[in-house]
Amino acid sequence: MENQTVSMKKVLIIAGAFCAFWIGSGFATGQEVLQFLSTSGAAKGITGAAIYSLLLGFFVYTLYGLGQKMQFSNPYDFFEYYCGKHIGQAYTWFSVVLMYGIYVVMLAGAGAIIQQYYGISVSTGTYCVAILALGTALLGVEKLIDIIGVIGPVKIVFVLAICIAALTVLVQQPDLLAVNSALIQTAGFPTASDNWLWSAILWAFLGLMFGSTFFVISGSACKSPKEARISGLLGVGAIFVAVVLLIIAEIVYLDVIKGQQVPTLAIAKHVAPLLAMVFAPVLMVCIYSSVASILLVVTRKFAVDKTKKFNLIAAALTVVGMFTGTLLPFDQLVNILYPISGYSGIALVAFIIYKEFINKNAFPFEKPGNEQKK
């Protein structure tokens, strides 16, 4: 029988860590929500947010529980658990490359924020966030989760702040949401796909590929499968609320976000200069915590955290990411990489469903012994 130990303090920390990991540059800047949901208008966008959250909730429930039960010595082993040795290895390496690509996208987001608000070069923001994230990743999994677990709720509060301003505008102009919902669909913003429903589903698959190893790592830090699953679902619930409110804010402030690399910062600046003054560094913290998490997850493929090998590889990956993160504009990087990532998750979902619900004995997995720290 499964251990059912649940610590509410631990649940809140793990849920907060999920939010901190999830609200990276794509989400916090508003580009991700804009390209996947807001461009479809309010009704379709919010319905898409619900579908996205239900699918993401299933992925989180499954992988948080698996991580706690299996306690993988290497989080990437879950691919072999679901897909077998050969396909699992292919997915492992694809995931590593994908995660590192998203790491680069997030560093580009940091540069875009610095440039848009402070007027400083893109490279400055990119380099600063990369170095701070490296320092945090070197502290190890447990310390990273403790740090970003506190940052997560702060992110949610500041995202909600600009959304509350949008709701205030709607009270005064109740027809604005309907009018701008029609206009945003022809405003020329890049979109993840031409179909709103497929965009929502694709975003959920992106979430699976983006977050799978982090889900497994977070689950392993819990004391019971129940504690792990509650933590993950609480985090998904908080993200759902933030997504819905952000869709409303972007549609209400359509004229404000046109031509902006960082829609949320443009809205904050429009609502109140003081809010923007606080929001800009908060966005940087959002990206920093996600970048640190991704760097740790990618490096864990090659070495155990807090070892000399881990530190050297993490430093090398940081140096490469610092320079490649300035090659393409941020919105172009999001539009290229994120949809591709979503498509790659479709087959993985099929493997998960097959083993969880059809044949639990498929692809027998023998957990290797714990890696030795060097």
SSE ordering: HHHHHHHHHHHHHHHH
Amino-to-carboxy terminus distance: 36 Å
Main CATH class:
Mainly Alpha
Our count of helices gives 16
Strand tally: 0
Under CATH, the homologous superfamily reads Amino acid/polyamine transporter I
Whole-number count of domains: 1
**Structural class determined from secondary elements:** mainly alpha
> What is CATH's topology name?
Amino acid/polyamine transporter I
Main sheet specs: none
Specify the CATH architecture: Up-down Bundle
The radius of gyration computed from the alpha-carbon positions, rounded to a whole number of angstroms, is 20 Å
Work out the helicity level.
over 70%
InterPro entries: Na/Glc_symporter_sf, YkvI-like
Keywords: Membrane, Transmembrane, Transmembrane helix
Transmembrane segments: 46-66, 91-114, 120-141, 148-171, 196-218, 230-254, 274-298, 310-330, 336-354
Based on the model shown, name its key terms.
78% helix, disordered C terminus, 374 residues, transmembrane, Amino acid/polyamine transporter I, mainly alpha
If you had to describe this structure to a student in words, what would you say it looks like?
There is one protein chain. The protein has 374 residues and is mainly α. It has a single domain (8-354), classed as Amino acid/polyamine transporter I, CATH 1.20.1740. 78% of the residues lie in helices and 0% in strands. It contains 16 helices and no strands. Helix 6 crosses helix 7 (122-137) and helix 7 (122-137) crosses helix 14. The protein is globular. Mean pLDDT is 85; it is low at 370-374. InterPro entries: Na/Glc_symporter_sf, YkvI-like. Keywords: Membrane, Transmembrane, Transmembrane helix.
